[in-house]
Design brief:
Helix 1 runs antiparallel to helix 3. It is built from 4 helices and no strands. It is about 75% helix and about 0% strand. It starts with a helix and ends with a helix. It is mostly helical.
């Protein structure tokens, strides 16, 4: 099985940063950026788990939930990638999370 800690570690770090981010920064865009990333990770996981199905969009649960949403979707994608053994998709997901984390306003 594929080791996905290269994905789960940066997801956890970014999720923790979002959980600790002040409300003002969340409202200025950090929550929207986190939600966009969580939605993308959820979409990728659904495409792996249910190929050929139209992915559901992750709902906006509010700025204070975005850290948890990111954590759940990131770990869900990691499990799907591990089961699929898709190293290229794993590397792409790590790059995406790292890029968003580097530019996060949190």
């Amino acid at each position: 099985m594929l080791d996905t800690t290269s994905l789960t570690r940066p997801v956890d770090r970014l999720a923790d940063r979002l959980r600790a981010t002040p409300q003002s920064a969340l409202r200025r865009g950090a929550a929207a950026e986190g939600l966009a990333l969580a939605r993308e990770l959820a979409r990728r996981a659904q495409e792996l788990e249910f190929p050929g199905s139209v992915p559901y969009e992750l709902p906006d649960a509010g700025p204070f939930a975005v850290g948890d949403q990111l954590s759940v979707t990131g770990h869900d994608l990691a499990l799907a990638l591990a089961a699929a053994g898709d190293e290229a998709a794993l590397a792409d997901a790590v790059d995406l999370v790292t890029a968003v984390g580097a530019g996060a306003r949190a």
